[in-house]
Amino acid sequence: MNICVFLSAADLADTYTRPARTLARLIGEGGHTLVWGGSDVGLMKVVADGVHENGGRLMGVSVHFLVDKVRTGVDDMVIARDLAERKRLLLDKADAVVIMVGGTGTLDEATDILELKKHGHTDKPVVLLNTAGFYDGLKQQFRRMEEEGFLPRPLSELVYFAEEPDEVMAYLQQHLAAR
Questions:
Q1: Can you tell me the distance from the alpha carbon of 40 to that of 96, in angstroms, rounded to the nearest whole number?
Q2: Within 13 Å of residue 10, how many CA atoms lie on the same side as its CB?
Q3: H or E element: which one contains 99?
Q4: Residue 105, domain member (yes or no)
Q5: Residue 132 is part of which domain span?
Q6: What DSSP element (H or E) covers 8?
Q7: Which residues of 28-60 are buried (b: 16+ CB within 10 A; e: fewer)?
Q8: What DSSP string runs through 141-166?
């Protein structure tokens, strides 16, 4: 399975890197391919290292203005013209999407895939890994959107909220096996 992971390139505390390493190990041990932003810094590096060290493949999609942060020695690397093309390529190459902790770029990527799902333009499973309650506020906002009629589909059809990395992989395995 090609698993796209949207996440931060920042250097983060163990609160965030520990679950990232666990998810990376599970992806790698499962023989899956990590599809990610291609950076070799911060949390992106942590996940790429873990996937690679545990037997998984690496498929990066970076963008011209970040080429100095690109990881070398990957199985596949594409350099997109701009962020819009990068997002499109990441999603095109993925069978599933996992959203980990991140800033505005991660939030942009997350809402983009959810908007596509909302309108029926993709049926790829999307899991939001809510490490240390990082996305509690967003989860509450999504529920309010659903309750007040802003979502034409149930929230449960758009995104699955997981608290731990093993929940992420169990959901993806179950969802993709049902296809």
A1: 22
A2: 12
A3: strand 96-99
A4: yes
A5: 9-178
A6: none
A7: bebebbbbbbbbbbbbbbbbbbbbbebebbbbb
A8: HHHHHHHTT--SS-HHHH-EEESSHH
Question: Per residue in 8-46, pLDDT tens?
Answer: 999 999 999 999 999 999 999 999 999 999 999 999 999
Q: Which residues are CB-neighbours of 92 under 8 A, at least 6 positions away?
A: none
pTM strictly above 0.90: yes
Q: Tokens for 52?
A: 């690679």
C-alpha to C-alpha distance for 132 and 84, rounded to whole angstroms: 30
Query: Which of 115-136 are b and which e, b meaning 16 or more Cβ less than 10 Å from the residue's Cβ?
Result: ebbbeeebebbbbbbbbeebbe
169 is written with which tokens?
A: 């992989």
CATH assignment at residue 42: 3.40.50.450
* Assigned domain for 3 exists: no
Residue corresponding to tokens 């599970």: 26
CA–CA dist 179, 63 (Å, integer)? 32
| Cβ atoms 167, 176 nearer than 8 A | no
